[in-house]
Amino acid sequence: MKYLSEYRDAQLVEHLLHQINQTITRPWTIMEICGGQTHGLVKNGIIDLLPPQITMVHGPGCPVCVTPVGLIDDAIELAEKQQVILCSFGDMLRVPGSGKSLLEAKAGGADVRMVYSPLDALQIAQKNPHREVVFFAVGFETTAPANALSVIQASRLQVNNYSILASQVLVPPAMEAILSDPQQHINAFLAAGHVCTIMGLEEYEPIARKYHIPIVVTGFEPVDLLHGILMAVKQLEKGYANVENQYARVVYAHGNAHARKVIDTVFEVSEREWRGIGNIEGSGYEVRNEFAAHNARIKFGLQHREAPEQSECIAGAVLKGLKKPRECPNFGTKCRPENPLGAPMVSSEGACAAYYHYASGNLLLQHDKV
């Protein structure tokens, strides 16, 4: 299958590993931003195949994982209102709030429904005109166009019982927050390819210049990841700090202009709280006042609430890249996917879930193609 099998080719993997080993002369720490990249690295045993001079650090690139506890509590509060249907992607259902999860609220009688698209939630609103329907809009820039489009459609069709609870977070401000942390010593980033299909490369140039750090936009398959790591190592060894695009088959310099226009129509940049990290200025999207009728925060008078993380969970340190999942004393014991202490064990993009589900191994070199 084009763009799949050739990016899982074992010979290409071996060739890239050989090039990395030939290029590297000193230790480097590289952070992959996206949880999908983390899963690709762990699932395919790539971390174990890299030379010992390379340390891969997992970043906060899982939007489910960085959704704050207080916002999950807000969603649960809405779901437990009699006239509200709360719609969400499946990943969010088991993420613990301060007292329970959305799935537990559903078990207690709340009308919580898993959907695959915000437009599915909009259809539910059209079919239930006497009930309020709220879509829990969680995601990075990648999901923002579809979430914005649902608001535009609701406004055009006068579906006044539809609103979204926005938890849209932006990658570049989070990268700056990580680089500003004195505990961090990141030498290079692998940036999230799917985010850049929407936003392009322009936002990363000032970060690369300011912090003198290479940023390589990278895909998710084994060959993509190793190629991105090789590109980063080449820059580091030469002392360069440029933005490069490994994912050129999908990502263009200016991104998707139409998608960005849809985002800008509905959303404006705002401060956002990140679970385990705290508030980051300019790191989120909020619904513009022109669409206030479809903003669940305004419609239901939700006030910002702070709720502490589970005291036994080290999700914050994992999301900042300061600790690996297996460094948590509760990993795989008290904290498991069916009974998580924190979000990174639940989400399909969470680092803890990646380490839990995929044992260390080298599937790539056991087969010609995987």
Question: Layout of SSEs?
Answer:
Elements: H1 10-23, E1 28-34, H2 35-43, H3 46-49, E2 54-61, H4 63-66, H5 69-79, E3 84-88, H6 102-107, E4 112-114, H7 118-127, E5 132-139, H8 144-156, E6 162-169, H9 171-180, E7 188-192, H10 193-199, H11 205-211, E8 215-218, H12 222-238, E9 243-245, H13 257-266, E10 267-274, E11 278-287, H14 296-299, H15 315-319, H16 351-357, H17 363-366
Parallel strand pairs: 1-2, 1-7, 3-4, 3-5, 5-6, 7-8, 8-9
Antiparallel strand pairs: 6-11, 10-11
Helix pairs in contact: 1-12, 2-16, 8-13
CATH architecture of the largest domain: 3-Layer(aba) Sandwich
Percentage of helical residues? 25-40%
Biggest sheet architecture: 6 strands, mixed
CATH superfamily label of the largest domain: HypD, alpha/beta domain 2
Question: How would you portray this structure in words?
Answer:
By secondary structure, the chain is α/β, with parallel strands linked by helices. It has two domains: 1-306, 3-Layer(aba) Sandwich (Rossmann fold); 315-356, no CATH class. The protein has helices at 10-23, 35-43, 46-49, 63-66, 69-79, 102-107, 118-127, 144-156, 171-180, 193-199, 205-211, 222-238, 257-266, 296-299, 315-319, 351-357, 363-366, and strands at 28-34, 54-61, 84-88, 112-114, 132-139, 162-169, 188-192, 215-218, 243-245, 267-274, 278-287. The strands form two sheets. The chain has a six-stranded mixed sheet with strand order 4-3-5-6-11-10, sandwiched between helices. α2 packs parallel to α16 (351-357). The chain is globular. The protein starts with 9 loop residues before the first helix and ends with a helix. The model is unreliable at 360-370 (pLDDT under 50).
